[in-house]
Amino acid sequence: MSRLLFTLVSAAFVFNLAACNKADRASSAENGNDLLVRIGAAAPLTGPQAHIGKDNENGTRMAIDDANTKGIMIGGKKVHFELLSEDDQTDPKIATIVAQKLVDAKVNGVIGHLNSGTSIPASRIYSDNGIPQISPSATAVNYTAQGFKTAFRVMANDSQQGKVLGEFAVKNLGAKNIAVIDDRTAYGQGLAEEFIKSAKANGAQIVAHEYTTDKAVDFSAVLTSIKSKKPDLLFFGGMDPQGVPMVKQMKSLGLAAKFMMGDGGYTPKMPELAGDAANDMYASLPGVPLEKMPNGPDFKKRYEEKFKQEIQLYAPYCYDATNVMIAAMQKAGSADPAKYLPELAKLTFDGVTSKITFDEKGDLKGGAVTLYQVQNGKWVPIETLGMSGK
Amino acid sequence: MEIFLQQLINGLVQGSVYALVALGYTMVYGILGLINFAHGEVVMVGAMVALMSINAMLGSAFPPAIILPVALFAAIFACMLLGYSIERIAYRPLRHAPRLAPLITAIGVSIVLQTLAMIIWGREYHAFPQLFPNQSHNFGGAVINDVQLAIIIIALLVMSMLMLLVHRTRLGRAMRAVAENQSAAILMGININQVISITFMLGSALAAIAGIMVSANYGVVHYYMGFMLGLKAFTAAVLGGIGNLRGAMLGGVLLGLIESLGAGYIGTLTGGFMGSNYQDAFAFLVLIGVLIFRPSGLLGERVADRA
User: Fold this and answer.
1) CA distance A59 to A154
2) Does residue A274 sit at the B interface (CB-CB below 8 Å)?
3) pLDDT tens-digit series, residues A314-356
4) Mutation choice for B interface testing from A211, A214, A224, A242 by most B CBs within 10 A
5) Do residues A182 and A77 share a domain?
6) What is the count of structural domains for chain A?
7) Complex prediction ipTM
8) Which of A162, A257, A292, B280 is at a distance of 20 to 30 A from A319, taking alpha carbons?
């Protein structure tokens, strides 16, 4: 019951905010010769994934601040960019409310959401209102498979990532009996399914498939039942708030299997919090390592100077997504969503993370996937696969 | 067999924590008829304060055997203060208001505490340092480590002390009197404001201990950690019969066992039809089942032995 009340209260709160915004929107539409362009950002800023969500917001903010300093012109007018950042709480229901709020605030485009589970329901609202949405990090295949012209992403999707992970687990790590846990979110479930498909195709056997949630912290029960199946590799489709306690409990239960996650596990927090337990674990991240990205080291330096903290996960992707959107507006000579959307679809852009072009669905063309391993408490890239495209 | 044993241990560890937190819910409900939804957040504050004091002392020359008790007392003290203030500021003015008002206030306090913690300690996960070497013991094929052993033993110890306090001391008698009939208690010369404050402080002290247990076990502290734990402990309190002390302990341990055995065996029992994703659903199914046959919980009575 508290859950329901909680949702109701927060929903009422969000609606209330939306109502307030309507009043001051009219006054600040366009003043004088300056063109005001609003970019919406949506990510969980509270809840278990708040640290990753804030990182996303920082990435977008950095791109917007950069654009404002550069003094970009669109259609002969000097542009002032404004960031409208919203908290979707990792909750699909809140995500739709937040999306509607951004639409009502007449944003010119949206960078987000962080999770697949929130990006997918929100994408319908953006599509209905013709507002381009670039997700920096939603990797579920379904996100762009719904046929919405407004949905894009700047990261390889889970079918690419799951395929590489499955292949790597079987061929490079020699796993034969694999256990899988997923957190039942659109992302975790989707990635786990793609991983299973690929692992099976490469000749491994799935001995157990267990489930948890994106709010759980205790996995001893499922890990105990997995232990009895004696797997040589455990794959977890989920994010680091679950990954950390999971790998610790795995070691404390004496479950001697290799541990592997997707992009949700590749955060500096993972080895920092899990300590020795995380040693030798694997995770992947679409794209090449930050050090090998064309402007990666420079971006890292500037980010750390600006926000006084390490990059958590997707900040460079948010930075790119925002810049891609701005570049499309410049090319179209307009920030009107209807006018710059066709330009966005056919744009080629040299970003921090990679060269960005979208295919007809809005997926990133030729997305690479890199595998990392924790060695002595640090993530070390071991192999980059799939550079040639799908 | 060793799998079964392991699941029992998992359940017992989890259940001990639930029981400690559930006691806080049930004590307050017993006396005020109020569900203090902010209690989960008190657990989180306990963990955070302990973490802060440990980190402050870690660089110094103190040995771990001193650091841990000091951190424990700091956490207990901070939580008792917090529990007292919550009652004084948020609930006491509403004591004679309709029941819904304090309930909504409780949810409000929970959100305020969570947000404050987010502002003070940040959004990221903090590592809870390991002060003592945490060895694993093999126990008939099942594994239990020092921290988990300590959780079970300390929980048992604290709970028996609480029972003694409630049933054998003057203060305990006063608490039971206030629970039974507030006006009669006043007539008997009991200072009910004081008793209620002490109840909140006691519950918060238990929450602080639970907070340290949880963080030592999972090694991670986060401003959001109290929410889910609070909900589960509340469920445990209802399962055992809210308002009843023994019920809260029984409910906590049972819920832990149900969850762990449910997650471990539900797949095999239903032939793969239902998986461990029904872990929570299974726990609530048991709760509903119990409430159908015993609406006031396992040990709850209509005229409850409330404390």
Assistant:
1) 13
2) yes
3) 999 999 999 999 999 999 999 999 999 999 999 999 888 888 9
4) A224
5) no
6) 2
7) 0.85
8) A162
Q: Are residues A130 and A152 in the same domain?
A: yes
d(CA B166, CA A261) in angstroms, rounded, equals 49
- Which domains does chain B carry? 2-125+142-293 (1.10.3470)
The residue of chain A with its CA nearest to that of B110 is A6
Query: What does the pLDDT look like over A95-143, one tens digit per residue?
Result: 999 999 999 999 999 998 999 999 999 999 999 999 999 999 998 988 9
A271 vs A265: CA distance, rounded Å? 10
Average pLDDT, chain A: 88
Burial class from Cβ neighbours inside 10 Å (0-12, 13-18, 19+) for residue B190 reads middle
Strands A348-350 and A258-261: unpaired
A50 touches chain B (CB under 8 A): yes
Joined together, the tokens standing for residue A151 give: 């949905």
Q: Tell me the residues of chain A between 144 and 163 that have a Cβ less than 8 Å away from chain B.
A: none
Domain that holds residue A177: 158-286+369-385
Considering only residues B56 and A367, tell me which one the structure prediction assigns the higher pLDDT: B56
Q: Do A195 and A145 sit in the same domain of this protein?
A: no
- Whether residues A193 and A266 share a domain: the answer is yes
Confidence (pTM)? 0.84
Residue A14 sits in a domain whose CATH number is: 3.40.50.2300
Which of 95-134 (B) contact A at CB < 8 A? Answer: 104, 107, 111, 114-115, 118, 122-127, 130, 134
Assess if residue A325 is contained within a domain. Answer: yes
CA-based nearest distance A344→chain B, Å: 34
Do both A272 and A124 map to the same domain?
Answer: no
Least confident segment among A62-66, A123-127, B25-29, B262-266 = B262-266
**DSSP line for B191-218:** -HHHHHHHHHHHHHHHHHHHHHHHHHHH
